[in-house]
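residues and backbone:
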Amino acid sequence: MKFRKNIFLEVTQQKISSIEFSKHLIFNKLYNISNENTYYKDDSNTKKFQIDIKNKNLYVLVEGETVYIRLVTLPIVRKYLINDMIKNELRYYYKDINNISFTYKLIKENKTNMEILVFCLKGNNLDMLEDSINNVTFKKVNLIQFYFKSFYANKINVKNYIMVFYYNSNLYYLICNNNEIVANNSVSLKEVTLSKFSKSMNEFLEQYNDYAKSCEKIYYSNISQLDIESDIKKFEYLQLSHQILDELKREELLKYIILKG
């Protein structure tokens, strides 16, 4: 029996980075993530990308995208029907449902209904993947916001909080209520530099004020390489205290994502 090889894909708006890996070697710390291929979306190497991922198990991380979050209530149905029912609900919010990718999480249920958080992704970040999916198996497709939140879960001691982190030229803002992401935004470093961090942060918190006002603390991660530390010290929101978490390097994050599966 021939086993499929595993490939981790890091998808941004400009490119896709591809890393072949063995979970066994990473788990036993015998493997360094160093050799990778890069495919630019406006380049002519799409064909090579299609060949390289053929007959592989794909683990996909999407970056630089804002997740649109909806809370929907559905009647209790069998699990295989939920996807279609959510898609029908989303038609009320988005005109072109074909350009929406989504995942969901069951929050609460009773005898007749269930409450579901739906996480939607709009845009063309996955276009290159969708054009190349013949003879591949998607093991996992997820967004970087969820992995950063998960990675730091043991160091966050409140249920309602704001989290800000920097990764790969983007600054991400999250609001979590009851340990669930309820609002988020992704801003390019260039935008933050032009408008200043405090302005960008205030705009986000004002937009989602109903969620933000219930938060108890602000957490920051991966900001040491940015010139915003003085801004952070001056920034105030509802007199919330803040904590700067340990830095998370790319190799450590990718290993965490691969092992978490």
User: Anything to note?
Assistant: The chain has three domains: 1-64+125-152+249-261, 68-122, 154-244. The radius of gyration is 20 Å. The CA atoms of residues 61 and 142 lie 5 Å apart.
